[in-house]
Amino acid sequence: MIESAGHTALAEARYAEAERLFRQELERCPERDRDGKAKCLSNLASALRAQGRLHEAEELLRRALAIEPSQAVTAACCNNLGEILAAAGSYPDALSLFLRARELWQQTLDPKHPDLATCLNNLGMLAVAERRFGDADPLYRQALETRREVLGPDHPEVGTSLNNLAGLREAQGAYDDADRLYREALGVWGRALGERHPNVAVGLNNLAELQRIRGRFEDAGELYQQALEILRAVHGDLHSSVATAFNNLGELRRSEARYVEAEALYRKSLEIDRAVLGEEHPEVATDLNNLAELFRIQGKLDEAEAFYLKALVIREKKLDPYHPDLAILLNNLAMLYLAQGRYQQAEPLYVRSYRLWEGALGKFHPDVGISLNNLANLYLAQHRYPEAEPLCRRAVEILETSYGPEHHAVASCLNNLAETLRGLHRIEEAEPLFRRALEIRRKALRVGHPDIATSLNNLAGLLETKGTLEEAELLYREAVALWEEAFGPDHPRLATGLNNLAHLLQLKGDVPAAEALYSRSLDIHARSLGDRHPTVRKNLANMASFLRTIGKKAQAEMLESRLRGS
């Protein structure tokens, strides 16, 4: 009776009550009953795991296995311990336990038994975590088929299988399939468990993440908030699921350029994950990486590098050297080095991350397209236009196929392709691409998003080249206003916009206004990037040349001396 009541409490997310009941059951179980004792320890471990107390749960399951119970009970304990180790990022140990559980259950259970389906599902989850998608698909499908046949179409475990298969489809870039499966899983869980169950929150969170990736920010925000509300009500704040929800909402706020909100959410996630999972867990590395990305976008490059390197230490210690999660960090660190003008350090990181993603995900995954676009961005900075063009074209093709033609990631690739064509003096080909990128960003992103400023600035540069100065000035001024609103008065992107506007005003003969903007741009760039940065060196040379043309020889010589000293 106590065990049954405990399982009911666990299924209904009354975790503290389940723990109390399972502890009572454990105290009453005779020591000589090895199977009974092991089951009691395993049940209590399940209640602790549901509360995020993974270390305590692991200890109980190891005690259960040390008792040496029967094959069936040993299999269950191996499976449950494998789930905990997988959650902790210890994938090789988890795999050996799942395989042992499957071997034992195959010897004692019917091939259609739900416990075997659970083991298959867990092996599939592990394969996804390790990006072995081809291995995961048949495991997930077999588990889903068994659960539907044996447990019925509205059993919670059917919802779990649907949710996991949706996650696989999302990882493969098949977003329409993923959306359908996530919604089907939510329907099953809602009918079986009620709308306020943690599983429903997990489903809402997963569906929200998919909407964010697809650029549907408003829908994503509503789903994230619903998920977070449920998880905090069930678990309180000190739980890894709550940390994930905070982190994902932070990702959305970063995508929307709401950086102050994003930082607070990321820091909350990091605080919880450190407390619950420990300093060296892969989720902690994810939190550190996300904070680093936020700092990089805001131009806080030294802070960003420190966080990237902390995250990289954890991932290199915990993951296989060919794991695609390493590619994320390598790519992001490369973007930082690009922003700092450290091009020789950036290129091998971009190339390695691209090869990791392509090897793990295939040639047509959107992450591969984004990686190609990022490498092209480096080549643009180095004026290596012939090398950049094929990368840009392939990135556009991949991302249009994955996301559709109106996604903001497609706009980024179109923008880089247009920049490449402009660098190759193919102005007439570049202009419609710049205009299309701007149109997509205005539709896909919130009003005032800094990526809109990037498109405005780039189109203005092309119009300036064509001599269409009035329209170019309007676009430059709008870009400068957006960047200053988004990033504040000291960001390198703002400095770039000011420099471009200054050059236009110089062409129009407004020398005093141009001089003031050149000076402000150089000051911001020098403070944020240092005099050795290629952009700062270029600005020093341009400013010195400008001062000479307006007869300020002494000031020009000071800048030239500074340039030589850098």
Q: What would your notes on this structure say?
A:
With 566 residues, this protein is mainly α. The protein has a domain at 279-362: Serine Threonine Protein Phosphatase 5, Tetratricopeptide repeat. It has helices at residues 2-11, 15-28, 34-50, 54-66, 71-87, 91-108, 114-129, 133-151, 156-171, 175-193, 198-213, 217-235, 240-255, 259-277, 282-297, 301-318, 324-339, 343-361, 366-381, 385-403, 408-423, 427-444, 450-466, 469-487, 492-507, 511-529, 534-549, 553-565. α5 (71-87) packs antiparallel against α6 (91-108), α5 (71-87) runs parallel beside α7 (114-129) and α11 runs parallel beside α13. The mean pLDDT is 91.
Q: How many strands in all? A: 0
Q: Can you identify the CATH superfamily of the domain at 279-362?
A: Tetratricopeptide repeat domain
What is the typical, i.e. mean, pLDDT? 91
Query: What's the CATH C level of the domain at 279-362?
Result: Mainly Alpha
Tell me the major beta sheet: none
- Overall 3D form: elongated
Write the layout of secondary structure elements.
Elements: H1 2-11, H2 15-28, H3 34-50, H4 54-66, H5 71-87, H6 91-108, H7 114-129, H8 133-151, H9 156-171, H10 175-193, H11 198-213, H12 217-235, H13 240-255, H14 259-277, H15 282-297, H16 301-318, H17 324-339, H18 343-361, H19 366-381, H20 385-403, H21 408-423, H22 427-444, H23 450-466, H24 469-487, H25 492-507, H26 511-529, H27 534-549, H28 553-565
